[in-house]
Structure prediction request, 291 residues.
Amino acid sequence: MLELSPTPQHTTGSPDQAVKLASQWLEAFTHRGLEERRASASTREAYSLDVTMLSRWAVAENKHLLSLDADDLTRYLSERFRQGTHPSTLARHLSSCRRFYAFLVSQGVVTHNPAEIVTAPRVARRRRRLVPDDVLGRVLRPRPLLVASAASACRAQRDYVIVRMLYDTALGISDIRLLRWPQINEQWSVVVVPGRNGVPKSFVLNAKLLDALKELRRCMAAWGFDAGDTPYCFPTSTGLPMSRQALCFAVRKWAEQCEPQAVITPSTLRQTGLAHHARRGRPVLTPTVGP
Prediction:
């Protein structure tokens, strides 16, 4: 645990010392302030990145991160908006700043939270775009694995299972890309993932998805991944989980091969599945987690 002095004399010293102190408090916020709130790993990463970007802006403006006021934060968000940052992203930046400065207030580093009086950008609601039924049927249909190697066959089956999982469950991108085999309970036909505040949630797996997962495990064994090589369901060739960008690219590539004119993202697949399941009255989230 970091032992930092909560003295408000953070504007003294050289610029390098100021940057170092700001970096230390950012690390304390990430590892202590957010963990106390039981924030997920992806949330901690996003908040840390947001405050880091603000810190770099402050350095460029010859200011100190711990001494920024509401006018500074407003100017920072305005500059990001003029650079093309989406209002929803700016709203998240502001939320990260509020959490960070609230943490500093709790530690006695600053006397007030300057982000509290900054207005968040308003985000207009957009109509959700769903995948047409005829295109969806082709995207969700497994293709013959006419490939030259076990590695290519495994990647193709991996991408197919990801596409089906996005549609058939309510799992998000991070839940899927970091999914591990022990999280799948074939007996109960559910997958269990960490929820907010550390409370696990279980999502229904239908028969087609379970069969596809079993075929994926067979393909991985043929590729050379034994049970102990990697715990991840959708690994790269190194055994590590796919990045968010790689997963999105895999989904788009799979969809284009099924329907060349279609532009399908993980979000549209997930929203289409949620809409269809709600219309049919089919649950995707189980109320309790089986043993």
User: Anything to note?
Assistant: The CA atoms of residues 9 and 109 lie 8 Å apart. Confidence is low (pLDDT under 50) at residues 1-12. The first helix runs from residue 15 to 36.
